[in-house]
Amino acid sequence: MMSNAAKRSILRWIHIVFSIPIIGYVYSPFEELPNYAPVVRFVSIPVLVLTGLWMWKGHVLRQLISKKST
User: Fold this and answer.
1) Model pTM?
2) Cβ contacts of residue 40 below 8 Å, gap of 6+?
3) Over the stretch 8-44, which tens digit does the pLDDT of each residue have?
4) How far apart are CA 45 and CA 60, in angstroms?
């Protein structure tokens, strides 16, 4: 299995990589916003929310999952 440090590192990098389209969305010219909108709205933000919640409260979710399986 993977160590906890490796899992945190992977989650952090996923979080960083998926924030790049948001930066492009914010700083792009107004004419190019329709090109960025679907990617930011339907891919980047959900991934950022999920990875952020997992890094913040993942230990609580793991405890809930382990209690249900026993």
Assistant:
1) 0.77
2) 21, 22, 25
3) 999 999 999 999 988 888 888 888 888 888 889 999 9
4) 22
Domain boundaries, the chain: 4-69
Place of tokens 């990589």: 17
d(CA 64, CA 18): 27
- Distance, in Å, from the CA atom of 40 to the CA atom of 20, rounded to the nearest integer, reads 9
**Could you give the CA distance from residue 26 to residue 21 in angstroms, rounded to a whole number?**
9
Are 51 and 18 spatial neighbours (Cβ–Cβ below 8 Å)? yes
Residues in the chain: 70
Residue with tokens 């492009």: 24
